[in-house]
Structure formats: structure tokens, C-alpha cells
Amino acid sequence: MAAEQALRAERARLEAHWHQRLARARYNAQRAARHDDAVEPENRLVARELARRWEEALGHEQHLQEEYARFRRECPPALTSYEREAILRLAHDVPALWHAAETAPQDRQEIVRVLVEHGTIDVHDESEQVDVTSHWAGGVTSAHRLRRPVARYDQLSTATALVARIDGLRQAGHSCAQIAEHLNREGVSPPKRTERFTGETVARLLNRRGLHGPRPRAMADASVLRPYEYWLADLARQVPMPIAPLHKWQRFGWVHSRQVPVASGRWALWADADELERLRALRASQRTWPEPHSPQALTTPKRCDMPPQRA
């Protein structure tokens, strides 16, 4: 509607300009006619010059009339009151059209192409915060703050506050699942395309920082573990490596382990100084063709009853 109003204003300005040109041409033609009428018939030389000027003035006026008629034909017709009401009515139907179940993604793309001329995107320091400015058809501009998915926690603009909040909840004795519930209620979102925190998400974040969530009482009891034994997450931090590959090594028998009944069946893994060195070497080894498997010397643990070697 603003664009149509601007077009009407521009057309009114051009119409006024054309009327001025036509009025000037009409005046010049009428003045040439008066001069031709006033000349004496005996003065034929002057009469011929005045008649020529009169014809030129009439020709110029007729040319302007033809140009004005062409201008009127090429100008888009003004909207009627019914058409204006229809546009306003349709504008209120756009949200319903956008959210309708029958509207396909291709239809929404077409709606955007019609409504939006172009947009600008400004990402804040590689974070998830994005400022989007939309330039709509008709000249209106709107600004929006959006959240984009990022790959890492340190890209989040709230990374420092998030870590501090998790540490506070952890020190208060909350489990990883309870910490996740707190974060979700507070509207905090993790990176990537995940919308909600889970207990596993919090546990992975703590593990990357060399921490862990509140443990069962049996795991906190140092007498449960034998010499050189670690809980799975603790040994993963010692290597260091993610928990999942170490758990796979444990299933393959690449590290000695035993299930501890008093700790809900959790696994205790044995690794003295020599074993820690072997596990770190295994972690650092590169498997290449034609030997795609890890070296047997790195995947074979030594006997638990063998004392550590001394340098």
C-alpha cells in the first residue's frame, strides 16, 4: 500500500508537469495565431513568417498531446477502492497461508521472493547470535535477532555463564540429568542443532573439561577400587580420550577390567604406569593401509600381576 501511494504521488507530479507543458504549448499556439491575425495582408513576407511560426506552434502542441496520450496509456492504472480493500484483506491472510498444512516449502519460498527484496546478515563474533535485516517490498525495513546452530560450546555467546551455571549446580549436588532439567527450564540451548540438554550432554561437557557429575556413594569410596584401578571416565581423562572408544577397547579386551557389584555394576579398569603409556600410544597410533588394524603390541595388555617397569 505504501508503494501504491508513492506511485500515485509520483504520477500526480508527472501529471502536473505534463499539464504545464501542454498549457505552455497551447499559449504559444494561441499567441502565434493572434500575431498572424494582426498582420496586414499587404505585408506578405511578414505574413508568411508568422504563418510558419503558427504552424510550428500547432505542430508542437499536437506532438505534446500525442506524447501525453502515450504517457497515459503506459502508466499503470490507479487502484480502485475495491482493489485496495482486497490487498489489505489478502495481507492479513498471508500468515494463515504461510502456516497452512497445504503450503509446501516451495510455496513459502515463492512468498518470500514476492515479499522480501533482499536481506543482510551480521554474525556476532562467530557466535550463535545473528542480526538479520529484511528489506521488504514497498520500502519497509525490519530488524530481527536470530539464533543459528554452532559447532562448539566455546562459540556460544553464553559459554562462560553456561559453564559457571553447570559448575554451581554440580557443586550443589545435582546429577547430570537434574542439571539438564535446570538448563532447559532456564531456556539455555546447547550448540549444533540440539534444542535441549540431556544428562548425557552435560556428562560429555563435564568430561571434556576434566570433570564429572556427582557420583554414587559407592564410587566415591576409595576402598572399592584396587591398586591401579580407575573408573572408566577417570581412565579416559588420564589417557586422555573420549569415553566411548575406551569402552570399546574394554569390550575388545584391550584393557583389563572387572565389574564392581557395589557400584551398580560399573566397570573398573586396571592400568599401571606401563599400561597408561601403552594406552596413550594406542590412542596416538595411525592405522593405514595395507595394515588397517592397530598393532598387536599396543592392543595386548600385560598381566595384572606384573610389577611396573622401572626406568
Question: What does the model show?
Answer:
There is one protein chain. With 311 residues, the protein is mainly alpha-helical. The protein has four domains: 2-74; 81-147, no CATH class; 154-208; 219-299, Multidrug-efflux Transporter Regulator, Chain: A, Domain 2 (Orthogonal Bundle). Helices cover 54% and strands 11% of the residues. It is built from twelve helices and six strands. The protein has helices spanning 2-38, 44-74, 81-99, 105-115, 159-171, 176-185, 199-208, 217-220, 232-238, 243-252, 273-284, 296-299; strands at residues 116-123, 129-136, 141-147, 229-231, 257-260, 266-270. The strands form two sheets. The chain has a three-stranded antiparallel sheet. Strands 4-6-5 form a three-stranded antiparallel sheet. Strand 1 (116-123) and strand 2 (129-136) form a beta hairpin. The relative contact order is 0.05.
CATH architecture of the largest domain: Orthogonal Bundle
Broad shape: rod-shaped
Major β-sheet strand ordering: 1-2-3
How large is the share of residues in beta strands?
5-15%
The radius of gyration is 42 Å
Number of helices: 12
Q: How many individual β-strands?
A: 6
Mean pLDDT: 84
Q: What is the chain-wise order of helices and strands?
A: HHHHEEEHHHHEHHEEHH
The CA-CA distance between the termini, in Å, is 86 Å
Q: What can be said about the biggest beta sheet?
A: 3 strands, antiparallel
Write the CATH fold name of the largest domain: Multidrug-efflux Transporter Regulator, Chain: A, Domain 2
- What structural class do the secondary elements suggest? mainly alpha
- Integer count of domains: 4
- Indicate the percent of residues in helices: 40-55%
Text of the CATH class of the largest domain:
Mainly Alpha
Stretches where pLDDT is under 50 for at least 5 consecutive residues are: none
